Give the backbone structure.
Amino acid sequence: MREITLSQAVNEAIAEEMRRDPTVFLMGEDVAEAGTPFKVLSGLVEEFGTDRVLDTPISEPGFVGMAVGAAMTGARPIVDLMFGDFIYLVMDQLCNQAAKQHYMSGGKLTVPMVLRTNMGATRRSAAQHSQSLQALVAHIPGVKVAMPSSAYEAKGLMKTAIRDNNPVVIFEDKLMYQDKAPVPEEEYLIPFGEANVKREGSDITFIATSSMVQVAEKAAEILAAEGISAEVIDPRTIVPLDEATLLASVKKTSRAIVIDEGHQSYGVTAEIASRLNEKAFYHLDAPVLRMGAMDVPVPFSPALEDITVPTPEGVAANARKLCAGEMIHAA
């Protein structure tokens, strides 16, 4: 099977869906001529023209509002939000308008809109361009949230999102755009709410999102050399969440660490850990541990930034303690 980058996978998915469905179009800042600052969308304007690949003014509330209206009236817009940090600017359009229209119209209206954006620290982009804000939109009923961990997931989840009749937000880790993974040439879709067991294990479960899947896999390799067997699960989507797969794993291993790059307090890790505690409590040999980003603005200083997010060594160290029966107090 060929290997392509995550960037190429996203580009392929959008191109295939635009060829398949003439109602699909793309809009955002610098998506046409520049192909976004990360060059993910390069080449699309040459094939589809400026009627379907639209460069917008620097007005996130304006063009997301336009996309909501277009989606309500028969189109399937893909909105590119240059940085995930800018999601604060579009919370009304996304969470008050797009998320609620189906419910408020008694099922008569749908908003089949995809908002693709990015997340992730350690790129030296400082506090306003390094945040991982997936928990904000996951909190709002009516919005689906996908977090691809590789090029394979990025393509399959994007195609599913474009065909979904609900608003979907996809968070891509900006440091993973050049990471390669095997991706089939034939068409495939990844269903929402279907987790992927990346590595089977028997002593502890790692539930990790986006780039934290790689962190968890590296931690599992470290532990394997010490005789500790870690299972690694990628939820793929946090809304909807595949509870059944997560619970089955935790009931088998009796221990779990949930890892996400969003801030630890009130975040994705807290929600998943809470569900495990509620529904697998009597199978647990230790409290479910959460590992997220420190509750501080992301520093610009490389030395400081690198210690704000979970690392393989940190995950492995906590796993050793859990497996040894030691109590760990979350920061």
